[in-house]
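User:
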Amino acid sequence: MTDEPREEIAESPEEQAVEQDFSELLASVEKERDEYLELAKRTKADFENYRKRVAREAVEAEGRGRAELARSLVPVLDNLERALAAANPEEDHLADGVRLVHDELVAVLARAGVESYSPAGEAFDPDWHEAMLTRPGEAGQVLEVLEKGYRLNGQVLRPARVVVGAAGE
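Assistant: Predicted structure:
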């Protein structure tokens, strides 16, 4: 190796122009890259939001379907209970069959989250009870339950139909 001093070579105007064009092209490509990267990030975030919304809507739709099915089965349950209440002891075999169907239907509804409630003796609450009649008794107290109420996950499917006490009657 030689220890000769290196000479700085001056760039010609053409080389300077090429260097300038290259720098501008590089800056333009970097800007375009950054725009595409930002677009990809926004698209990814939008898709994630869409996925979450669709999942939430599917859960809500399942809940609405479950509630509608349970709401339509409650009168069937009432009729089975009426049949059991009116059963003739001489026809015990028929009542046993109705009881089996009733118990199975109650179990299926319970697994789906449906529960019945019978508010006899409780204070009347219009959110949970439907007053059908009033009778003399302790004001605002549920005296008798005409039909049980049903709820699904804490929401009323059908309010309990009740007789409410009224003072001074």
